[in-house]
């Protein structure tokens, strides 16, 4: 608790010291900005007020005449600063004494009461002047803070919108250069830890002073123009650093009209550098979090793939090994029919392993983006015919019906891949439907796309599950029954249909069961010279 209080007190003291420095900077800038003509203008104001007072002298008493001399004091304080206002106070007292207090045109005062009046007037004038200057400085401080806040807010908005580090650097140097009306560059280390320009407003920063930049990067301190380190340089260097590491160096040069960096400019540049550092750290943390997420997902997918593949390979492989062992050990005992049955078991198990390998290869192509569509004009009914012949053994325990509009137009698609989609959907319907139930395939066209539906009579898939069934390795389960499979079939279907710019989804069927639907968009008009037997080579 005490440590927290000490840290808080130190922070407050630091803020107070910075505010004092800023106030002194504003006052110093005010004094440096005061020019000779300000004093001349002040003298002219006093002369003008004196002439006016001479005209009003017959009608006003001396107290009112003295008050009018406060006007140039206030005007000078507000517009030209502390020096001209003090000068106005002194000239006002002197003019009042010479021109209005007897004896006239003499600084001699016969009535000592006027000395007290002069002292009070001078005190009031200087106090008023000081108060006005302080108010003006406070307004200037508020304006500086407002400008700084606006600049930081503008920069934060720009760099937050940037998706990468390069974009952050470019936005930062552009904003900094516009703010100070100068030039800016950001230098960061490359793979060899050599500082190189990452972003700059002018090519001149390619010829930067390597030694000075490396010193700032190594020590994490400001250097260059306006500092005690490398003060002969015309460039101001600031470190871009986080609490853990140095990120780079911000190099800034003023425009031709500016000769030195003011304190508020330095503080603003430091705030810019800190803001850039925070943005870089935030982006790197986001990238690390994303990478960690990818690694976790990859590990999850690897585990799921290993479990699924090991199970799917083990079962058919065990069947093949068992059948081969039986034939080798007892060849003479088995009848011809028994041998054919064992060979059939081996064939079905090998085909099952072949489908698994094909699904894995298809998924690898989809994931790597190397899936190349061989688009050609196809008859969707021809594709279905080939798919049904290949899936014949899969649906041998189900009744299969096909309903299609014989006026279906040709569609431009990859014959083999759409065939694979139909096989996977029919195989999925057979797996998740009770034996003896029917499976229906319906096709129709609305003039814009062809829609294909594969309908089963299995248990209705819940809504929350319908959102997941097209994910990799996701598998749905019947109550008290675990089905075979890797969870890749529907995911492959989605990847293929997406590549064709189509849609695929699942929904419950009226009367029970589910239907899996996909669409293929109709392309431009079918060429007139297209052969009649479209897709004949694929059908064969």
TrEMBL record:
State the EC number(s). Answer: 2.7.13.3
Recorded GO cellular component terms are: plasma membrane
What's its membrane topology?
Multi-pass membrane protein
Q: List the Gene3D superfamilies hit by this protein, alphabetically.
A: 1.10.287.130, 3.30.450.40, Backbone structure of the membrane domain of e. Coli histidine kinase receptor kdpd (1.20.120.620), Histidine kinase-like ATPase, C-terminal domain (3.30.565.10)
Location in the cell reads:
Membrane
| Top EC class, one word | transferase
The family database entries (InterPro entries) matched by this protein are listed as: GAF, GAF-like_dom_sf, HATPase_C_sf, HATPase_dom, His_kinase_dom, HisK_dim/P_dom, HisK_dim/P_sf, Histidine_kinase_KdpD
Domain (Histidine kinase): give its ranges. 308-524
Transmembrane segments annotated in the record for this chain: 36-56, 68-94, 114-135
What catalytic activity is recorded?
ATP + protein L-histidine = ADP + protein N-phospho-L-histidine
The residues forming a coiled coil are none
Key words of the record: ATP-binding, Kinase, Membrane, Nucleotide-binding, Phosphoprotein, Transferase, Transmembrane, Transmembrane helix, Two-component regulatory system
Q: Does the keyword Transmembrane apply?
A: yes
How is this protein named in the record? Answer: histidine kinase
The record's section on Pfam families has: DUF4118, GAF_3, HATPase_c, HisKA
Query: What would be an example GO MF term here?
Result: identical protein binding
